[in-house]
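Bumping with the actual sequence this time:
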Amino acid sequence: MISFANPHLLYLLLIVPVVAVLYYIAVLARKRTLARFGNLKTLSPLMPDASRYMGWVKTTLALLALTFIIIALARPYTPSGEGATTEEKTARGIEVMLCVDVSNSMLASSTDDPRGISRLQRAKMLLEKLIDKMNDDKVGLIVFAGDAYTQLPITSDYISAKMFLNGITTDMVPTQGTAIGAALDMAINSFTPDSEFRKAIVLITDGENFEDNAVEIAELAAESGIEVDVVGIGSGKGAPIPVAPGASDYMRDYNGNEVKTALNEQMAKDIAKAGDGIYVSGNSSAAVADIDNQLSKLATTEYKRSAAVSSANELFPIAALIALIFLVIDGMLSYSKISWLRDINFFTKKTDNESGN
């Protein structure tokens, strides 16, 4: 069975029949226009290079390419277990819970430039690189704004972890706010119970906490032997918040002034200090390396891990390749008749005189 990492993008397939219908309407309109100048059978010899079929062929190829591009964007894959074999192996690792801020302020630019990459996009890029550095560690994912929700329980399946990570948006949590303490509390309770694993929480946020006392929760985590590392996203100068991802308009207050949000770096540092962890700036080129080095200091625990001999298949490269093939073929064809077929009529029988009888 094929699954999709971004199934909502499949709604874009509705564009395909719409375009096909519009092209059909355009063909009918062209025929009506030509009919004004005379009978179509009479006009056809005056347009020897015009093909009755190449327009449909090229349109079909373009629509097929569009179909497979949309499928590729939806990230098809076969879940682990289909087309893959697994085996148990002995591994050593730690458990890491990733807590990602998805409040609206994360739509703001991660730099002083309002048009820069959003804080959420930078957070996803950093965490994906961090997951890529993991070998035998277990990882889980929590998103939070006004409330906190578990997106992925603790697992050693990195493919699923990155798929869930890539699907994160600011619409995932209906209640706005920045409840960092709630996210930390949920992370503390999300680790494997009664295990000997060393545990760490990687919190990535712009630090604007208004909901609870995150510092106290971080202290409780440290007392339980759980390290809390914090990645601060954003700039101290601040940036306006887009009304939607990629929008050029920004949120405004009751007086019509743009609402700006800045990284509360001190709050982020306080949380990291209370959690016996480190604070790292998300804008630093060494951010991923610093967090990875910090996590590598934790003692690993031996456990049995089911490892995929042939990992779950990512199918989007195949879909993208098929789309590229259709586009190349479409580009090689023209709307006029193919030269070596120009003198061939497939639909008219030869007369007796033409056949020599």
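The tokens above came from a reply further down the thread. Residues 148 and 186 are 7 Å apart (CA to CA).
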